[in-house]
Design a protein that fits this description.
Keywords: ATP-binding, Coiled coil, Nucleotide-binding, Repeat. It holds the Pfam family ABC_tran_CTD. GO terms for molecular function: ATP binding; ATP hydrolysis activity; DNA binding. Belongs to the ABC transporter superfamily. ABCF family. YheS subfamily. With about 625 residues, this protein is of the alpha/beta class. The protein folds into four domains: about 1-15 and about 30-90 and about 125-230, P-loop containing nucleotide triphosphate hydrolases (Rossmann fold, 3-Layer(aba) Sandwich), CATH 3.40.50.300; about 235-295; about 315-515, P-loop containing nucleotide triphosphate hydrolases (Rossmann fold, 3-Layer(aba) Sandwich), CATH 3.40.50.300; about 540-635. Helix content is about 50%, strand content about 20%. It has 21 helices and 18 strands. The chain has helices at about 40-50, 80-85, 90-105, 105-120, 125-135, 150-165, 180-195, 205-210, 230-245, 250-265, 275-290, 350-360, 385, 395-400, 405-415, 435-445, 465-475, 485-495, 510-540, 545-590, 600-635; strands spanning about 1-10, 15-25, 30-35, 55-60, 65-70, 170-175, 200, 215-220, 225-230, 315-320, 325-335, 340-345, 365-370, 375-380, 450-455, 480-485, 495-500, 505-510. The strands form four sheets. A six-stranded mixed β-sheet has the order 5-6-7-3-8-9, sandwiched between helices. Strands 14-15-16-12-17-18 form a six-stranded mixed β-sheet, with helices on both faces. Helix 17 links the parallel strand 15 and strand 16. Helix 10 (about 250-265) runs antiparallel to helix 11 (about 275-290). The longest helix is centred in the last third of the chain and has 46 residues, at about 545-590. The radius of gyration is 27 Å and the shape is globular. It starts with a strand and ends with a helix.
Length: about 625
């Protein structure tokens, strides 16, 4: 285990930790959370021995192998596959010694080294590295490209793959989901769930933490506070503690009221779509955990748009792409006031192409784009950070957009994004990535858009800012189109999805859980096609061989049939449970149920709700286990 005992750490004039203690138990998966600049990355450096504490001690078992994800962008000219395999330093050491032994004809040593190679599964290293690359969204053709030929985001993915390739007892990952799309994030989630070692994770993605971690370490007031359970459990525990203390009671009640109002407004529309029902459940849960965020340093909202057109924007028979390259064909999309659209699809399918076209950064190759007379676009993307003037202050950035705005008005506005005092008027050159992202977002909000186009808005933001953004988007009265790997944000801010795949952008009339299952199916199909292609190239086409293949296929179907049938039955059961849960939650929405006379009925419904949720979780767990089994048999 890792033990921090009375650790104090100061960087410059800022105290990050003061007499802080914590224990990370062996085999546990902990998320390290806290605001930007609270010391999360510095704690990683302490553990790695790259920093020394001012006082106290950090104890780590000497025999532990530690792997971590490098934050600097890869500059190596080595092929991507070799770059990933380099993460296994023990493998590379044995290979080097083997080359020398073979050159010197040291046969006994050669035999010993081959045995060592076998013990660390070295003969399968190439296959394991390819699986990591494919899981993170690379193609087979990418494996031989030089690492430095990829863009910055893809090089960060290479660093992540290299860390996963490294055999480890402790894995340190700092914001691993930045630069990942939802498909790659879901793959990484499963990989980490199966990881045998101890994990310490920094992430702003609450759904990712919920799925992977069994403990939370919160850096707050220069102390380390540990919580058992995932991020949702942390929120509940912290909400209870803060509510008991009656801290900022007025603010807490106001926030709960705002979320309640939004739930009521949305409930009227949440009667048909499965994804709407799923979102309603998330909103109800957000209401319960609102007190956990009452002391958040962020408190902002989107101003009510001054005017609307209907539709705000329309594309008919659109052909989208670059030059002669068509990415999306025959797009028909109409965005109205109040539209809330989430874009789904694999990396490279065309999501960013679509949002850039909506933002007029790309022109249509063909088709017609019509915008309303009163359209006011607010566009956030990662390149907005690069466009910031590093020598200007946050206040000056806003002053340039509204020269007549009063200084106090600008300062009050920036305070909602936690730019207080001197920070509001000093140059941003030394701001962190998270602080620059907050400023870029503040600039978008300041311009009072009626259509928001958001491309991965939560990258670089901490959990509290992500929560504040989610709540602000809930209250936004304009239209939203968003790309995000943050499932919590999507569940709580959009009510329809467009799936960008195979050159089309079409409605996806289901929820994110269904999308996750769709991704798994697509992976199985792709894996199956790859295997079939590989086998076809390696086998002859004789009649006897074809007969053998047919027999093998029949045997495979026979093996898979019971599992496939079981999966279908579980899916049917899950649908029935969801229907029953929806009915109960509709009943629980009746305010008269909470009167004293209905106490017994309320308790009965709450008990039944809890039993149904438990049954649904168990069914979902079975579903994943059976799908894993199905995939294992299919690939054998």
């Amino acid at each position: 285990m890792i033990k921090l005992d009375s650790v104090s750490l100061q960087r410059g004039s800022k105290i990050l930790l003061e007499q802080a203690s914590a224990v990370f138990h062996t085999g546990h998966k902990n998320a390290l959370i806290g605001g930007n600049g609270s010391g999360k990355s510095s704690l990683f450096q302490l553990i790695l021995g790259q920093l020394s504490s001012d006082s106290g001690s950090v104890a780590i078992p000497k025999q532990w192998r530690i792997a971590h994800m490098a934050q600097e962008v890869a500059t190596s000219q080595r092929p991507a596959l070799d770059y990933i395999i380099d993460g296994d330093s023990e493998l590379r050491r044995i290979e080097h010694e083997l080359q020398l032994a073979e050159r010197n004809e040291q046969h006994q040593l050669i035999a010993s080294l081959h045995e060592q190679l076998d013990n660390i599964d070295g003969y399968n290293a190439k296959v394991r590295a390819e699986q990591l690359l494919l899981g993170l969204g690379f193609s087979i053709s990418d494996t031989q490209k030089p690492a430095n030929s990829f863009s910055g985001g893809w090089r960060i993915r290479l660093n992540l793959a290299q860390a996963l390739m490294s055999p480890s007892d402790l894995l340190l990952l700092d914001e691993p989901t930045n630069h990942l799309d939802l498909d790659a994030e879901l793959w990484l989630e499963q990989w980490l769930q199966n990881y045998d070692g101890s994990l310490l994770l920094i992430s702003h993605d609450r759904d990712f933490i919920d799925s992977v971690c069994d403990g939370i370490v919160h850096i707050e007031h220069q102390q380390l506070t540990t919580y058992t359970g995932n991020y949702s459990a942390f929120e509940r525990q912290r909400a209870e503690r803060l509510a008991q203390q009656q801290i900022n009671y007025q603010k807490q009640q106001q926030r709960i009221s705002e979320i309640n109002d939004f739930v009521r407004r949305f409930r009227a529309k949440a009667t048909k779509a499965k994804q709407a029902q799923s979102r309603l459940k998330e909103l109800s849960r957000m209401e319960a955990i609102a007190p956990a965020h009452i002391d958040s340093p962020f408190d902002f909202s989107f101003p009510k748009p001054e005017r609307f057109s209907d539709p705000l924007l329309n594309i008919s028979h659109g052909q989208l792409g670059y030059g002669d390259s068509i990415i999306i064909d025959q797009l028909n999309l109409s965005i109205h006031p109040g539209s809330r659209i989430g874009l789904l699809g694999a990396n490279g399918a065309g999501k960013s192409t679509l949002i850039k076209t909506l933002a007029t950064e790309l022109t249509l190759l063909q088709g017609e784009r019509t915008q309303g007379e009163h359209l006011a676009l607010g566009y956030f993307s990662q390149h907005q950070l690069e466009a910031l003037d590093l020598d200007a202050s946050p206040a000056l950035h806003l002053q340039r957009l509204a020269p007549k705005a009063r200084e106090q008005e600008i300062r009050n506005f920036l305070g909602g994004f936690n730019f207080h005092g001197d920070m509001a008027v000093e140059p941003i050159r030394h701001f962190s990535g998270g602080e620059k992202a907050r400023l870029a977002l503040a600039i978008v909000v300041w311009q009072k858009p009626n259509l928001l186009l958001l491309d991965e808005p939560t990258n670089h933001l901490d959990l509290e800012m992500c929560h504040a953004l989610t709540v602000a988007l809930q209250g936004f009265e304009g239209a939203v189109v968003v790309i995000s790997h943050d499932r919590h944000l999507l569940r709580n801010t959009v009510d329809q999805f467009l799936l960008v795949a195979n050159g089309k952008a079409q409605a996806f009339d289901d929820d994110l859980d269904a999308y996750s299952r769709w991704i798994m199916e697509q992976r199985k199909i792709a894996n199956s096609e790859n295997k079939n292609t590989s086998k076809a190239s390696e086998t002859d086409n004789s009649a006897s061989n074809k007969k053998e293949q047919r027999q093998q296929a029949a045997e495979q179907r026979k093996k898979l049939a019971p599992i496939t049938n079981a999966i279908k039955n579980i899916e049917k059961n899950m649908a029935q449970l969801e229907t029953k849960l929806s009915r109960i939650e509709e009943s629980l929405a009746d305010s008269s149920l909470y009167e004293d006379d209905n106490k017994a009925n309320l308790q009965r419904l709450l008990k039944e709700q809890g039993e149904l949720k438990l049954a649904h979780e168990q069914a979902e767990e079975q579903w994943f286990e059976l799908n894993d089994e199905l995939e294992t048999i299919s690939s054998s």
